[in-house]
Amino acid sequence: MDPNASSVHPSPMPLSIKATQVKLVLLGESAVGKSSLVIQFVQQGYVENREPTIGAAFLTKKYQTGEQSIKFEIWDTAGQERFHSLAPMYYRNAQAAIVVYDITKAASLDKAKTWVKELQRQASSDIVIALVGNKLDLVQEDEHERQVLAEDAQAYAEEGNLLFYETSAKTSENVDAVFGAIANQIPAPHVSKALSGGRSLNGPNGSFNLMEAPKDTASGCAC
Asked: Which residue ranges does UniProt annotate as crossing the membrane (predicted)?
């Protein structure tokens, strides 16, 4: 998959079609831009210097692909190591995952690979996983900022049967394309199954809803 492909914007949602739910989780090291990716997809906006996510945040977005109408139920998890143990309750029964790294920080790809291994070992066997290298805008401004070659990350993704994109949450480049590719990979019969994992807050489309956090954490917005 071409990491520099143009973004594909979702088609308007026909009112007559009932959307089916897809649970999607975002994983990755802190400060790679997970939350900014989601906010760009859901709200078409970008905020500089977002506060780190605490625990997880929950957002929804309806998406139309062909004749299939999908409601993404997105769990944006915290990247700090102290929250790692909470991750399984968010990716449990998830039908899709986006694992994000920072293309200007080589170590973040190593962490992303750790998440991929964990998902392949513990998540649903048919989960759709996308590996996403974020902060493409920084590299476009100065190629010397790049620490992860696109061809290296793509080779790893192909070996693991992962979707692969490079994105910019700031400029929105390829953000919609990632979610569109995931939507097209979800098997139609599977997408109609009721979600049994995670607690859906079912807020208005495009709204930002904070999770009900465990007692030792709080909910928050994102970086």
From this structure: none
* Chain center to CA of 18: 23
Count the residues in the chain: 223
Structural domain total, the chain: 1
pLDDT confidence bin for 98, thresholds 50/70/90: very high
Full residue range of the structural domain in which residue 72 is found: 20-185
Which tokens hold the place of 179? 């979610």
Q: Is residue 10 part of a domain?
A: no
Q: Both tokens of residue 109?
A: 């790809």
Q: What is the CATH number of the domain that holds 44?
A: 3.40.50.300
Helix pair angle (34-43, 175-185), 10° resolution: 80
pLDDT digits (tens, 9 = 90+) for 111-130: 999 999 999 999 999 999 99
Q: Which stretch of DSSP H or E encloses residue 42?
A: helix 34-43
pTM higher than 0.85: no
The Cα 174–Cα 140 span in angstroms is: 14
Q: Reply yes or no on whether the pLDDT at 55 is more than 60.
A: no
β-pair type (56-65, 208-210): antiparallel
